[in-house]
Amino acid sequence: MLKTFIKRPVKVQAIQFTAENKDAVYSWARTVQSNVYHDRDIEESPILRIPTLEGEMVCLIGDYLIVEPFPTDWRKLYPCKKSIFEQSYDIAESSIQ
Fold first, then answer.
1. Closest Cα to residue 83, out of 11, 16, 34, 29?
2. According to the lineage, what is the superkingdom (predicted)?
3. pTM confidence score
């Protein structure tokens, strides 16, 4: 029989990848996961490429880069579209200064 489940809340750390902070985000991302590299898409916009065992993930300008709450040796970061991130997450009280 089909059952209904509710996902447990998980706190994550994330940063939005923007044209203004692209270099800082790239530098930070490399400290978390060393195989992340920067590139350009077909429109010449900056992107981050994140190789994983599941395939390559791409973080576009405007996306959020999330620190994996359950990291593995091969995946410590993942991108999330802005619209999905904003529907899924609220800022934690401890982050408000």
1. 16
2. Bacteria
3. 0.87
